[in-house]
Amino acid sequence: MPTATPEAFRFKTPFAISRGVRTETRVVTVRVMRDGREGWAECLPYPRYGETVEGVIAAIEALPEALTRSALQDLLPAGAARNGVDCALWDLEAKAQGRPVWALAGLAPPEPLITAFTLSLDAPDRMEAAARAAADRPVLKVKLGAGEEDVARIEAVRRGAPDARIIVDANEGWTADLYAALAPHLVRLGVALVEQPLPAGKDEALAHMARPLPVCADESCHDRASLPALKGRYDLVNIKLDKTGGLTEALALRDAARAAGFGVMVGCMAATSLAMAPAVLVAQGADVVDLDGPLLLADDRAAPLRYEGSRVWPAGPELWG
Predict the structure, then answer these.
(1) Secondary structure (3-state) at 24
(2) Is 0.85 topped by the overall pTM?
(3) What are phi and psi for residue 34, nearest 5 degrees?
(4) For residues 172 and 195, what is the distance between their CA atoms, to the nearest angstrom?
(5) Are strands 165-169 and 3-17 parallel, antiparallel or unpaired?
(6) Over the stretch 167-200, which tens digit does the pLDDT of each residue have?
(7) Which positions are annotated as active-site residues?
(8) Element (H, E) at 181
(9) 3 state SS of 141
(10) CA distance 141 to 211
(11) Strand 307-308 versus strand 191-195 pairing type
């Protein structure tokens, strides 16, 4: 039977998005033992999707002892609990066979990636200062979603980081009218795309309006079953393992999204290197990579991912996979 343990990791500085401010992130560490070997992984229960740490732990610990990745897909829905167990089972299989997960999954050897670096939602002057401190990073992801002052925030970020590629994340904080009003200004300021401007389930307006600023589905995209409703509304999809329910579905969603004509972004929750490790495999060849979770934390796992600036290397076997 899998075991699950709650853990907390502090942010370097308070982390703010349109839904609130946090000083720490609470994750669940999952372990699966078999034949003297242990596979492990990490998931992050997300209140936006009705998840709690306690609920995720209960769902994991109710699973049967004789468990396969294939059976797991039917035992738990897409979400954090399945993600933790799925990735732990991949790690266990890699250790049992003495082969890396990328080889087990039939993937090419993973390469280092350039990740976006996230700037928290704040007053424009403080966001300008944060952008100036991160101006050497090639891609900045800017948290927005607080209304018409968002243009002032991006103008401030652009002053602070004149050469960076900028993407923005509204976290469901805009209306259709606000997107239409803001998009031309953001395009003028060199913004490349916006994540989830409208609330999931209330995004039908995107199908009936011009999208001068490309739109990426985040909260509206969980697994392959999400894709049909996104056609005509979104230009890209953001794949996060805590939404897909693990590496198994994330790889399938990536392939299905590309086949359906969507661009691919691979993102993360605010989590440690253990959560990023399987996502690095999914992010190979992605249009946008946003795997900076450990860079925002004051603490990380032992044997963490190697980051040099915005470049992140695949995990070593001492961490995962």
Answers:
(1) strand
(2) yes
(3) -160, 130
(4) 8
(5) unpaired
(6) 999 989 899 999 999 999 999 999 999 999 999 9
(7) 143, 240
(8) helix 176-188
(9) strand
(10) 19
(11) unpaired
